[in-house]
């Protein structure tokens, strides 16, 4: 252990060297150590590396950016408190994301977005990160930029999902123009996993009263209903996300939204019933809740078969 500590202290000291080659070699070594040795990650954080790594994110060198961002991602697995308590870290991550299509390498963007997702596992960090409007704006820009790499889009979506888990952050995502790009990904997202990840974010931000008007601008309710059509072949996760989004619109969007959801969702009652019967435990609960709204019946239960549910809807 002591040998590891000495090695780490030496490498972190070299991050402050005037020699670019010395800094580059130390950074590359820290990246490898933090990736392959879980025991050494706290040592790297405790040795004072994080301020250096945050500063390196501003470098014009793609190699420096990538190694620093990847090391921070590795450290976020075990040293989230150390990262969040480092002054300027979120600003440095924001800088990387903001320049996603110009001076920042794709790999650094992906690692930085993934670091945010890792930090957002902690409930108390969600309002702090959500208060950084520049971060939310940059994540939205990544998902709406046509030539963004697939992994950049997926990592940005996962970060947005983590941000939207905190209810007060949902309005920020909406206000900063996140709704239209999210629905565009659902409609046009033929790439692997994109529809699932985008619909998961949509389901979260639907839990905000301001979502109703924005959803209308891009025919959002119709898109969600289409996802539940058994003929579209949507995956189970996507269907569950659509159910969750529609239920949130009913619960948070007021009477007008509830009536619109009820009218349109009746067209895909069989799809909702399928989730109620075959979804995850959470998916089943939400699907049954939505079906109760469609038939105004509080006696419907999760053990009913698809046929029984559909019969009840037709009566």
Task: Write a brief caption for the model.
By secondary structure, this protein is an all-alpha fold.
Defining key terms:
single chain; 315 residues; mainly alpha; Leucine-rich Repeat Variant; 21 helices; 0% strand; repeat; ARM-like; ARM-type_fold; U-box domain-containing protein; ubl conjugation pathway
Report the order of strands and helices. Answer: HHHHHHHHHHHHHHHHHHHHH
The CATH architecture term of the domain at 179-314 is Alpha Horseshoe
CATH structural class of the domain at 179-314 = Mainly Alpha
End-to-end separation: 71 Å
- Roughly what is the average pLDDT, rounded to an integer? 92
Structural class: mainly alpha
User: What coarse outline follows from CA principal-axis ratios?
Assistant: elongated
CATH superfamily of the domain at 179-314: Leucine-rich Repeat Variant
Percent helix among the residues? over 70%
SS element count, helices: 21
How many strand segments?
0
Residues in β-strands, percent: under 5%
Q: Which regions contain 5 or more consecutive residues with pLDDT less than 50? A: none
Major pleated sheet: none
What's the CATH topology name of the domain at 179-314? Leucine-rich Repeat Variant
Radius of gyration: 23 Å
């Amino acid at each position: 252990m002591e040998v590891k500590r000495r090695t780490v202290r030496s490498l972190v000291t070299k991050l402050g060297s005037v020699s670019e080659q010395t800094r580059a070699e130390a950074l590359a070594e820290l990246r490898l150590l933090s990736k392959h040795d879980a025991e050494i990650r706290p040592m790297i954080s405790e040795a004072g590396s994080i301020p250096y790594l945050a500063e390196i994110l501003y470098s014009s060198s793609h190699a420096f950016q990538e190694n620093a961002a990847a090391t921070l991602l590795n450290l976020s697995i075990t040293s989230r408190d150390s990262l969040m308590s480092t002054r300027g870290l979120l600003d440095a991550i924001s800088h990387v994301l903001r320049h996603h299509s110009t001076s920042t390498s794709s790999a650094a963007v992906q690692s930085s977005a993934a670091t945010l997702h890792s930090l957002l596992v902690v409930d108390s960090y969600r309002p702090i990160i959500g208060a950084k409007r520049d971060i939310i704006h940059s994540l939205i820009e990544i998902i709406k930029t046509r030539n963004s790499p697939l992994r950049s889009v997926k990592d940005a979506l996962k970060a947005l999902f983590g941000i939207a888990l905190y209810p007060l952050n949902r309005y920020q995502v909406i206000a900063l123009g996140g709704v239209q790009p999210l629905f565009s990904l659902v409609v046009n997202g033929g790439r692997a996993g994109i529809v699932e990840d985008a619909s998961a974010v949509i389901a979260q931000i639907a839990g905000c009263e301001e979502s109703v008007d924005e959803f209308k601008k891009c025919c959002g309710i119709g898109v969600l209903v289409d996802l539940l059509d058994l003929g579209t072949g949507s995956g189970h996760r996507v269907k569950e996300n659509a159910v969750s989004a529609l239920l949130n619109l009913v619960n948070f969007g007021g009477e007008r939204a509830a009536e619109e959801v009820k009218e349109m969702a009746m067209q895909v009652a069989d799809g909702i019933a399928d989730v109620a019967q075959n979804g995850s435990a959470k998916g089943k609960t939400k699907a049954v809740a939505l079906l109760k709204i469609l038939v105004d019946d509080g006696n419907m239960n999760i053990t009913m078969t698809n046929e029984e549910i559909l019969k009840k809807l037709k009566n």
